[in-house]
Amino acid sequence: MVTTIVTIRGDETDEAKIAQAGELLKAGKLVAFPTETVYGLGANALDAQAASKIYSAKGRPSDNPLIVHIADWDALGLIVSEIPAKARMLAEKFWPGPLTMIFPKSSRVPYETTGGLDTVAVRMPGNDIALRLIRAGGGYIAAPSANTSGRPSPTSAQHVKDDLDGKIDMIVDGGEVSIGLESTIVDLSEEEPAILRPGYITRAMLEEVIGEVQVDQALIKDDSNIIPKAPGMKYRHYAPKADLLVVEGRQQDVIGKINELVRDKAEHGLTAGVICTEESRPYYEAEILRVIGSREDENSIARNLFAILREFDSLEVDGIYSESFESPGLGQAIMNRLLKAAGHQVLQVGSGGVSKYSRLLFVSSGNTCVSPMAEGIARKKLEGKGIEILSRGMVVLFPEPLNQKAEAVMIRNGIKPGRHMSCQLSREDLGDGCLVLTVDRKQKEEIQAAYPEQNNVYTLEEYAGCQGLSSPYGGELADYGRCFEQLERMIDKAVRRMEWEGRL
Ligand code: AMP
Ligand code: MG
């Protein structure tokens, strides 16, 4: 397929171009266009087939619903079965604008558009080109961000072209977007309004209009077991090719630590890039330094974030260190995107900096299967690195040998299990230099409750920044094999994280 690119220039030729794009949309084709947040990939939202095309062009998981874009308030009634009073109040204040609201859907909206849900997300974008195009295209345009799934959202037509050239019918180039982060999503379909995705419209701005607004728990806690209410939020988004690590702490500690880490990487022949601000730029030694914006102007940071993540992909760096941009305002949305891009890898630095880990401790419930397998894998990967590797159980009534299937899988994979006997976790196993990785969340919580002074306790999934560890207990040999592979992948990532944090 040839992707036609039309450029909107603010002259008399625009109308014909928008009409042409509108005709394509009406005919069930895909057209990318600018909104004030990011570029969207549009299709007729009421046409099941057209909506399905979006998923294949983006490689988007089919359970990740689309936002329907409208251009007029009156259009809303046709696609929703109810309009709560609070939605009306928010629309009056923020539409057209970067706010998406979730409503119970009407039968006019196909399940292809809502990812199988009975609710529909709706937004009226605050961008003149978008509004004209929506009207020209029939009034209901499903438009997720116009990127390949998993890549940073596009903030220019060139980004769209980089990802989707040859896969969609048209790109309407309307220049760079003004906000640069996707819309705030608010769920009004339940009793308490809740933010499902932070964006330019902050919680405080919403509360000023409709009173108390909750925040989806999945956004607050970094916990892979809480399922976000916006299905798309569970996926790793915005992932740059290189590892990204966010460094948090006082400004001078962060700069000092990042300089030290970059130097250390260079000594090992690795190239690290740095994301900094106008204010901190003079203090960095790194050769590959990108200024994201100014701390005086959060909007500038939001606008440049995705473009910088994309730029790093073409720079061939081995890793990226970024400052943190936490704030009560737009910083919430910025950090939500940045932490996703980083797979939630955050390094906290205090004035003393960080020291190397002396012990890596895997904890499972019985210490007969998953944690000893993890121990064996880590021993092999970390041989000669000067870090002690152990595994322990939370409930070990008497010592037991390694589970036989786990043993067989380890031997098959070239790991000598040694003479393992399960062992109960005790205070002596812990301490300052110890990194504790638990097999599931329960053990993490129990350790934190019993040893509140212990830092660096994570679930393995959390620390590795990926999901999918399933217990093989009681299963077939193949289940143990699968678990072994999952552990290997996660431990690889965990080791990389320790290296990039300078803790190995
Ligand atoms: P994107 O259009 O790429 O910005 O992604 C749309 C986001 O809206 C995803 O995170 C979806 O999960 C979310 N979303 C769309 N429709 C719904 C819905 N009915 N309920 C909850 N979240 C939704
Ligand atoms: Mg998206």
Query: Which class best fits the helix and strand makeup?
Result: alpha/beta
Percentage of residues in strands: 15-25%
Largest sheet: 11 strands, mixed
Unreliable stretches: none
The structural domain count equals 3
Return the average pLDDT rounded to an integer: 94
Number of helices: 17
What form results from the Cα inertia axes?
A: globular
Distance between the termini: 49 Å
Helix content: 25-40%
Question: What is the strand arrangement across the widest sheet?
Answer: 1-8-2-3-7-4-6-5-9-10-11
CATH architecture of the largest domain: Alpha-Beta Complex
Can you lay out the helices and strands and say which pair or pack?
Layout: E1 4-7, H1 14-26, E2 31-34, E3 39-44, H2 48-58, E4 67-69, H3 76-79, H4 85-94, E5 99-104, H5 111-114, E6 119-123, H6 128-136, E7 141-142, H7 157-164, E8 170-173, E9 184-187, E10 194-197, H8 203-210, E11 214-215, H9 217-220, E12 243-248, H10 251-267, E13 272-276, E14 288-291, H11 298-313, E15 319-323, H12 331-341, E16 346-348, E17 359-364, H13 370-381, E18 388-393, H14 404-412, E19 434-438, H15 441-450, E20 457-459, H16 460-464, H17 477-500
Parallel strand pairs: 1-8, 2-8, 4-6, 5-9, 10-11, 12-15, 12-16, 13-14, 13-15, 17-18, 17-19, 19-20
Antiparallel strand pairs: 2-3, 3-7, 4-7, 5-6, 9-10
Helix pairs in contact: 1-6, 11-12, 13-17, 14-17
Bound molecules: adenosine monophosphate and magnesium ion.
Magnesium ion (MG) binds near residues 144, 145 and 153.
